[in-house]
Amino acid sequence: MASTGVFADIIDEEDRVFKYYSDGEWKKSSSRKSVSIINPTTRSVQFRVQACTQEEVNKTIEIAKVAQKSWAKTPLWKRAELLHKAAAILKEHKNPIAECLVKEIAKPAKDAVTEVVRSGDLVSYCAEEGVRILGEGKFLVSDSFPGNERTKYCLTSKIPLGVVLAIPPFNYPVNLAVSKIAPAIIAGNSLVLKPPTQGAVAALHMVHCFHLAGFPKGLISCVTGKGSEIGDFLTMHPGVNCISFTGGDTGIAISKKAGMIPLQMELGGKDACIVLEDADLDLAAANIVKGGFSYSGQRCTAVKVVLVMEFVADTLVQKVNAEVAKLTVGPPEDDCDITPVVTESSANFIEGLVMDAKQKGATFYQEYKRDGNLIWPLLLDNVRPDMRIAWEEPFGPVLPVIRISSVEEGINHCNASNFGLQGCVFTRDINKAILISDAMETGTVQINSAPARGPDHFPFQGLKDSGVGSQGITNSINMMTKVKSVVINLPTPSYTMG
User: Fold this and answer.
1) Cα-flanking dihedrals φ and ψ of residue 229, to 5°?
2) Which of 56, 104, 115, 266 is catalytic?
3) Residue 496 pLDDT level (bands cut at 50, 70, 90)
4) Does residue 368 lie in a domain region?
5) 2 pLDDT above the threshold of 70
6) Is residue 266 annotated as a catalytic residue, yes or no?
């Protein structure tokens, strides 16, 4: 089992509730309360985690502040060495962590293992990149600005912000946690993790891998509990110096309350796929299905609306439908393509979008079928702008197709959305691809491929309600640091003679 062996310390054997992590120790909350985690497949309680109190959160942040001051004095090579060690431990224990992902968020078993391995690779890459980025500074001289002699030398370097609060989402609770942890730690910060409820146990296992690597006490912490009780307390805490959040509308509320601290937020998308008449339709169909239905569509970068030129629409829809028919449906333990969505409320929301489209006349290529949280893949054609599915993010295995009569119509629909995370365009004409990409109001545009966050060192950002700031390893390191300058004032101008 996941909670045996090296992970035995993270669960209380008496009541079978997973502990939270603070000051280098696994602890039980004084609240004596727990939060239940429902298995999406069985719809019964799978795990329970501690319901931390505000007092415990406050103490954890105070400890993190103290730990950070010492960590900032730790040599870069030593920080990187410990991150490499954590990455190796993480990959060594990929199977028990993946087992948690299967049970908590119904991620197919193979994809769950891939997430953990990818996370280890991200940590190692971040360690190496951090040494390079943070090991360099700038040397500026004053006489490059008009009216100045060379009487001032300016030395700039990157310094840590302090305590970073990391809040990852349910769909990648390990990978999107380490994408925040590793940059924060290599940059000299401490970090407090608030994992999502669904995915919390996988995140706790991941944090234990950092514990086993030997990081200083208090440097990395993980508090669990109800967002209604500790959510605002965390995000508005004066001891927090930076927030990295991935999720939904909650991020907008956080940004309004957080005050003057750096924010890194990715808040979802309605990623549009524009298919032109000259596109390779087989390539487009394969990517649309992969992009739209991978992990049951529960991805921020999933294809969420297809905008196809009318002339090739029939052919494309037939090809997409043929690919959809190949998808397997069932439990995550069987590595099925389509598994139960994360919660019953998510399934109900998706069903509401589907029923609205049906009432308004969308063409259904499959009969709508649902069993509990499991929703069979559904392709909807002839979707119109007056349907909710044309604009709202289903986060499920439902793909709407809107037929367009011009490229401008497709761009206008994409840009009318309040989201702007990613988009994609399929065409054989590179000139058209560039022109359309420039016109799309999204953080990233993929040409002849489905939207995707990775590789993890690529910049990843959204416009409008899709977020603020930019992710990706390099961008995250830079975002979690601040530039500091030291200016040397010389008594007389000084010039290097060559």
Assistant:
1) -100, -40
2) 266
3) confident
4) yes
5) no
6) yes
